[in-house]
UniProtKB/TrEMBL annotation, chain A:
The chain crosses the membrane at residues 12-37, 72-94, 106-128, 134-152, 193-216, 236-257. Pfam families: BPD_transp_1 (PF00528). This is ABC transporter permease. GO terms for biological process: transmembrane transport. Keywords: Cell inner membrane, Cell membrane, Membrane, Transmembrane, Transmembrane helix, Transport. It comes from Phytohabitans suffuscus. GO terms for cellular component: plasma membrane. It comes from the Bacteria. Residues 68-256 form the ABC transmembrane type-1 domain. It is found in: Cell inner membrane; Cell membrane. PROSITE patterns: ABC_TM1.
UniProtKB/TrEMBL annotation, chain B:
The keyword Zinc-finger does not apply. This is ABC transporter permease. It comes from Phytohabitans suffuscus. It is a multi-pass membrane protein. Keywords: Cell membrane, Membrane, Transmembrane, Transmembrane helix, Transport. GO terms for cellular component: plasma membrane. It is found in: Cell membrane.
TrEMBL record, chain C:
Pfam families: ABC_tran, TOBE_2. Its EC number is 7.6.2.9. It comes from Phytohabitans suffuscus. This is ABC-type quaternary amine transporter. GO terms for molecular function: ABC-type quaternary ammonium compound transporting activity; ATP binding; ATP hydrolysis activity. It comes from the Bacteria.
């Protein structure tokens, strides 16, 4: 960045404003983490004393562990479904391999534009009509609908950024289509695909509305369990669980921020991006 | 691009990879939506029982001040949230786009962490802050909300909802500001404009599309916000989404819940249609593009 | 037999005919450059040969056999792409060895051949780098090595130097020419740079509006363009619209703005308004007005001189307002030739080329 003169607005006001906003963004999360260490049996901020017993209690409580496990399994399965149905679609659409590709792409994005409460309500009515209780895979499929758009979008963006000449070069060197996918195209989109999968997983893991409407109290996911604790009998152990989740988000965010900024944003003189 | 591209058979086979996703959407998305649409025209007999077809539900929602107020509150909340996030998000996005590297890293983390944390957890954090004896209420006391705290108030719900949606706004604006050609700013200053003048005449107008796109995105998402109003607003501050939950899960009045959902979706889709058009025109990739 | 032959090749996109009935043949070991502006169809032609474009009509023959139905990955035609298309996730060595690995050659043979090829293009020290860590010129060499390591009979070059600066282009051009003569592969090289096209080529094919408008040795195409547009495409040109006349001796001659032009060309087929090409380098300039008026010379005023280092380009305006370009030969600059000076331009009859208008 070149040296420059700062106006008063940028030199004095902006830092203050940004600091306040950063505090606003961080406040609720910081408060939760702090509260989780309180010695009082109720939530107290600033925390009263210091103890790890809420964390210990939560980590050894079978119901919390079951909820976390449920969330992990359900999120993993739904992302798996989303990847299996989304990847072939993304490949075809990125290549404009079918007619109306742009409209179809928009169609696939619709679930993130429609309030999820509507189709979740519909699913609930549907299972009710069939007179069955919602099986676990019902939640998995509902979450898959929610995450597929993100996966398709990420993969498509990565594929569209690839130089089409790469494929032509490989063809001219004698490679088969399958080989080109495995050796040339997929390695070059793997990173974006992985970040798409991670994002989809986080979304599925955090989702409340879908399992809240569909699942009874028997298969609570972590957000459902947190929700009912917060709504009905809140104590510092909920803060402890929340802190653990914040910690995980922070780790992922730091990793992805580093990654995001390391990536060169522009390609110079048409040369392919560095492989490093 | 390839030799077989124009052959009819190859064209037809090209649809095959779309079959799984379309099937999933048909069963898990289209059918449920249709079911809600149909249900919204059924008569509510008693809890969980539905009769013949009627338009009473829509009449009720659109005429009964209680339900109409609920819809109005949802729209008002969405509009206020959109405005608030734009005002709060712009400085962050600006600093993110123009600031030094270390600041970018810090801001990106600060924006990403809430984005990746469940909204249940985030709303819970605000509950602690807003509690009767929480520091936020003590701080906000002189501002007129009194010692009763921000729990169950429109201000509390607004602040927490804005917090939940702020990352989307920041990322949308960042996408636009980051792509703004820096030579335009240099040209403007070379022509004699001050930094502030350059910002007001060049940067702000050129990023206005992003502001509008971000506001529409936030608006559409906020109309159906459920978690935050449910936890912070509780029974005292109810919006359309939480009322749908109440009607469908607790009162089992599915037709009424469906009618409200249909109206909510209509508003959201309309907003998103404008958003898609706008973001396509302005080249703003939108938050979904950036996080996606 | 020709190594590569195009027979009536056409390509239509909707209503646009981007390649219009192109026929040409390239001999074994020959380097043909295809010169044309963007939109002339040259790239479409190259891509049709490679198989990336399916022609709407015509045929592509390699050694007399049609390759249109051969899959792209089995045509055995090497390609060097404009932006090199190096695989970003593979090292230089892996990029060069890719085609050999695809062909399942034994590992030691792959290594040997890749090493030899890297040595040939002077990239041995960079073998383990990724393409992103190389300069443009180095990437270009990797792309050439990657195509050549397979020993293709035919190699296509799609404007491979267009992203490089002028100095580098010139040296790479010479390297490529040497390599091609040494390895004796048949090459087709697409470019829009007329210097590059002429410097490299055994023969130049000039494309315009989807058609092949002229093909021949660089000197032929330069000296005897079939069309005034071709004359302009290949370099600076005075294009003089003349009228036919008859001299006192009864010989046919041409008149341009009252000046008399004699030519060695046959004027029989020149038509009613022949166009004359007079290259600036054939126009000699001396100070002062013409003494006795004579054919193939005219008097005028030097209106500007553009300094080009090795030469200077003069614009001479004759009394009627017409302008003539002339190259002032290198050497100690004539101190008395400055804009505004009266000058005489003259040229030999052999330099007056009559071309179709």
């Amino acid at each position: 960045m070149t040296r420059r003169l700062l106006s008063w607005a940028e030199s004095a006001v902006l830092p203050v404003v940004v600091t306040v906003l950063v505090a606003f963004l961080a406040a609720p999360l910081v408060v939760l983490v702090a509260t989780a260490f309180t010695q009082t049996p109720y939530l107290s901020f600033p925390p009263d004393g210091f103890t790890l017993r809420w964390f210990e209690g939560v980590l050894s409580d079978p119901t919390w562990r079951a909820a976390a496990w449920n969330s992990l399994i359900i999120a993993a399965m739904s992302v798996g479904v989303a990847a299996v149905v989304g990847a072939p679609a993304a490949i075809v659409l990125a290549r404009r391999g079918v007619r109306f590709a742009p409209s179809l792409t928009l169609l696939i994005m619709i679930p993130i534009m429609v309030p999820s409460i509507m189709y979740v309500l519909g699913l609930m009515l549907g299972y009710n009509e069939l007179d069955v209780s919602v099986p676990t895979w019902g939640i998995v499929l509902a979450l898959a609908v929610l995450t597929t758009p993100y996966l398709v979008r990420t993969l498509m963006a990565a594929l569209e950024q690839l130089d089409p000449a790469l494929e032509e070069a490989a063809l001219s060197l004698g490679a088969s289509r399958l080989r080109i996918w495995v050796e040339i195209l997929l390695p070059n989109v793997a990173k974006s695909f992985f970040s798409g999968v991670s994002l989809a997983f986080i979304l599925a893991f955090d989702e409340l509305v879908v399992p809240l409407f569909l699942a009874g109290p028997d298969v609570p996911t972590l957000p459902v369990r947190i929700y009912s604790s917060v709504a009905y009998n809140v104590d510092p152990s909920v803060a402890a669980v929340s802190s653990l989740l914040v910690l995980v988000s922070a780790l992922v965010a730091v990793l992805s921020a580093r990654d995001n900024l390391r990536k060169p944003t522009t390609r110079k003189d048409g040369a392919p991006d560095g492989g490093a | 691009m390839t030799a077989g591209r124009n052959r009819g058979g190859a064209r037809r086979a090209a649809w095959l990879p779309l079959a799984p996703v379309l099937t999933l959407y048909a069963i898990q998305f289209v059918v449920p939506m249709a079911l809600v649409a149909v249900t919204s025209f059924r008569r509510h007999e008693s809890a969980g029982e539905m009769g013949g077809f009627t338009t009473d539900n829509f009449a009720k929602v659109l005429q009964d001040p209680y339900y109409l107020g609920m819809l109005g509150r949802s729209l008002a909340l969405a509009g206020e949230t959109a405005l608030l996030t734009a005002v709060l998000g712009y400085p962050i996005a600006y600093a993110l786009a123009r600031g030094p590297r270390w600041l970018k890293v810090v801001l990106l983390v600060v924006v990403m962490v809430p984005l990746m944390t469940s909204s249940v957890v985030r709303s819970f954090g605000w509950m602690v802050l807003f509690a009767r004896d929480g520091i936020f209420s003590t701080l906000a006391g002189p501002l007129g909300d009194g010692p009763a705290g921000l729990m169950y108030t429109s201000t509390g719900v607004l602040l927490a909802t804005a917090h939940v949606l702020l990352p989307f706004m920041v990322l949308t604006l960042y996408g636009v500001l980051d792509r703004l050609n820096p030579t335009l700013v240099q040209a403007s200053m070379n022509l004699g404009a001050s930094r502030t003048g350059t910002f007001l005449r060049i940067t702000l107008p050129l990023s206005m599309n992003g502001v509008v796109a971000g506001m529409l995105l936030v608006f559409a998402t906020a109309t159906s916000a459920f978690v935050t109003p449910q936890l912070i607003g509780g029974t005292r501050y109810r919006v359309a989404a939480t009322e749908i939950y109440e009607q469908s899960i607790n009162l089992l009045n599915w037709p009424l819940a469906s009618a409200m959902a249909v109206l909510l979706v209509a508003v959201a889709l309309l907003t998103m249609a404008v958003y898609t058009r706008l973001s396509r025109d302005s080249g703003a990739s939108g938050a979904t593009g950036i996080i996606g | 037999m020709a190594e590569l032959e195009l027979v009536g090749l056409s390509k239509r996109y909707g209503r646009d005919l981007v390649l219009d009935d192109v026929s040409l043949s390239v001999q074994e070991g020959e380097l043909v450059t295809v010169l044309g502006q963007s939109g002339s169809g040259k790239t479409t032609m190259l891509r049709s040969i490679a198989g990336f474009v399916t022609p709407s009509g015509g045929d592509v023959l390699v050694h007399g056999r049609s390759v249109l139905n051969a899959p792209i990955n089995q045509r055995g035609i090497g390609i060097v792409f404009q932006n090199y298309a190096l695989f970003p996730h593979l090292s230089v060595r892996q990029n060069v060895g890719y085609g050999l690995r695809v062909r399942r050659l034994p590992r030691h043979e792959i290594r040997e051949r890749v090493d030899r090829e890297l040595d040939r293009v002077m990239l041995t020290p960079y073998a383990d780098r990724k393409p992103g860590q190389l300069s443009g010129g180095q990437q270009q060499r990797v792309a050439v090595a990657r195509a050549l390591v397979l020993r293709p009979r035919i190699v296509l070059f799609d404007e491979p130097f267009s992203n490089l600066d002028a100095m580098l282009r010139e040296s790479l051009r010479r390297e490529l020419r040497d390599l091609q003569k040494r390895l004796r592969f048949t090459a087709m090289f697409v470019t829009h740079d007329q210097r590059e096209a002429m410097a490299l080529a055994d023969r130049v094919a000039v494309m315009r509006g989807g058609r092949l408008v002229q093909m021949g040795a660089p000197t032929d195409v330069y000296e005897r363009p079939a069309h005034r547009a071709i004359a302009e495409l290949l370099g600076r040109a005075n294009l003089l619209d003349c009228e036919p006349a008859t001299g006192e001796d009864g010989r046919a001659l041409l008149r341009w703005r009252g000046h008399t032009l004699r030519t060695d060309d046959d004027l029989a087929g020149a038509g009613a308004d022949p166009c004359v090409l007079l290259r600036p380098e054939y126009v000699a300039v001396r100070p002062g007005a013409p003494d006795p008026p004579a054919p193939n010379q005219l008097g005028g005023v030097l209106s500007s001189v553009e300094y080009h280092g090795s030469s200077r380009l003069a614009v001479i305006t004759e009394p009627g307002g017409g302008t003539l370009l002339a190259d002032l030969r290198a050497g100690p600059a004539d101190p008395y030739l400055a804009p505004g000076d009266p000058v005489t331009a003259s040229w030999p009859a052999a330099a007056v080329r009559v071309i179709g208008s």
